Amino acid sequence: MGLTMSQKIIHNHLVSGKLKKEEEIGIQIDQTLTQDSTGTMTYLQLEAMNIDEVKTKRSVAYVDHNLLQVGFENADDHKYLQTVTNRYGIYFSKPGNGICHQVHLERFSVPGQTLIGSDSHTPTCGAVGMLAIGAGGLDVAKAMAGVPYYFKMPKMVNIKLSGTLQPGCSAKDIILEVLRRLTVKGGVGKILEYTGSGVCNLSIPERGTITNMGAELGATTSIFPSDATTKEFLKAQNRLEDYHELSPDEDAHYDEVYEINLDELKPLIACPHSPDAVRTVEEVGTIKVDQVAIGSCTNGSYQDLMKVATILKGKTVHPDVSLVISPGSKQVLTMLAKNGALADILASGARLLESGCGPCIGMGQSPATNAISLRTFNRNFYGRCGTLSANVYLCSPETAAYSALAGVLINPMNEKLGISQPDSFEINDLSIISPNKQGDIKRGPNIKPFPLNEPLSAYLTKKVLIKVGDHITTDHIMPSNAKLLPYRSNIPYLSQYCFQTVDETFATRAMSEKGGFIIAGLNYGQGSSREHAALVPLYLGIKGVIAKSFARIHRSNLINSGILPLEFVEDKDYDQMNQNDVLELKDLTHLVTQAQPLVMVYNVTQNRYIKTRLLLSKRERKMILAGGAINLIKQERGE
Ligand code: F3S
């Protein structure tokens, strides 16, 4: 039987396991990326591994999340990142050079190679036929040290595109349509492969919008073929030598197949507070708009912003609307400046932000109380924008720009813009520093050591510290906003804010009880790959999370931190659990060593047993027994 595109890449990088659904496989990693929010911790972990230099072909550290420097903390972190990456042989993309996924797509992506990144939108580089996966920071550190990346062989899903996008529709509408059909949990344990006659009509940045937001489906990754359009893109980036063709075999087998006819697609919009709450723009109607934010790693490309500039040219932004634009990269911004489009954008009354994440992560531009914010971004989780009462909608750059002019939501159907991928891009890599592997590593006072767990105890008796519902995101567990981001390398400080938007007293309770358990519903830990959502609970003494199900990256992060990810065998047992119940787990080291998946949890308060399951691979069992991945690495080195 033939192979799909990702099966081909996995096959070429396979170190352990077989291409068999749900079996654990290990693959060699060619490239890694980090961003500043997760990167400081990743490099502290890399340092703990005592290697001389990174073993990957290309590793890049980006500073894009927190560009505000209102105190010494961020500046110190940036200095640490620059000096530690230089020491280990890692490229450093300076603040202002752009968002990691946009820059990586432009300057580093290679079809057929593997990439893991400590950011959940790493799959963006699937746009050129790369196997690009979002992972925890520790997995990225391990990959840089030459350790394979382990994950369960995903199911293969084929999204067959036919036809051509009609005027007013864009790549954003394609991924919103996929989200409408599959929902935020529809991609879990799956890789989405885009094929069909409609693919050749999509440029690489358009494909990047789709692979980027595939993260919202919970998918392992998304991938496009590497074809003539890919070749043109790499040539225009002056990297023709990186081109390799990639397509699925004709007899490749897919577990699920979906068809989308682009001719029939309408402008779509994701309503508050989930990227899968998708309706047509027409259905939502002419709601009043207070803020419009255009850019991010989803829609910050040259092509996207040229469309916006064309719409805004000679017009004025509605007086009641604040329009902010953050270009995806310095390359994009420079090209807009050179061809005059930037002047058109500014003349319309739009505000220009730095090439970085900015409002996407609540880093400035939080909307006013009760405001409606229209964003071209990828997430609209409750509170992520920094204003709890705001309602955030996700849409295409076309819908956003027309609406900014009108002051109300506008359906851009039938508006023809005709902007395509340029023949050549502006190449200037002066903001990407090549490492010379020399010099000292500079550490400011905000850089605290990462927390370490203890080896697994045979017996645990602890209280349920909190009971949360379904779809709890890593933003809920460990918020990341303008106030907290400067402390990303200071876990003791961050711990005070754990679960703050759900329960203000959680952190104090966890400290006074010296740790305990978390009870959760479905898809616990979805959203951003933020490792801090596991490291902070570890610091607070959390021993285990008992959930109906876990999001993939967060589950790995828990195991890496030595926290037990237990699943209810019967969902109805979730209903019986209460905060403050005392739970007792016996014989744990024996159960884990013997790979017994059934763990009986005794609820002391209610005098009843609850069945949970602990499905761990051999490697994961070792990590849980050792109390986390760093402990295991040290143990294996005899330290
Ligand atoms: Fe940055 Fe938002 Fe993307 S935080 S990496 S622009 S999802």
From TrEMBL:
It comes from the Bacteria. One of its GO terms (cellular component) is cytosol. It comes from Turicibacter sanguinis. PANTHER family: ACONITATE HYDRATASE B, ACONITATE HYDRATASE, MITOCHONDRIAL. Its EC number is 4.2.1.3. InterPro entries: Acnase/IPM_dHydase_lsu_aba_1/3, Acoase/IPM_deHydtase_lsu_aba, Aconitase/3IPM_dehydase_swvl, Aconitase/IPM_isomerase, Aconitase_4Fe-4S_BS, Aconitase_4Fe-4S_dom, Aconitase_put, AconitaseA/IPMdHydase_ssu_swvl. One of its GO terms (molecular function) is 4 iron, 4 sulfur cluster binding. Belongs to the aconitase/IPM isomerase family. Monomer. Keywords: Iron, Iron-sulfur, Lyase, Metal-binding. Residues 7-407 form the Aconitase/3-isopropylmalate dehydratase large subunit alpha/beta/alpha domain. GO terms for biological process: tricarboxylic acid cycle. This is Aconitate hydratase. It holds the Pfam family Aconitase_C. Residues 517-569 form the Aconitase A/isopropylmalate dehydratase small subunit swivel domain. Its cofactor is [4Fe-4S] cluster.
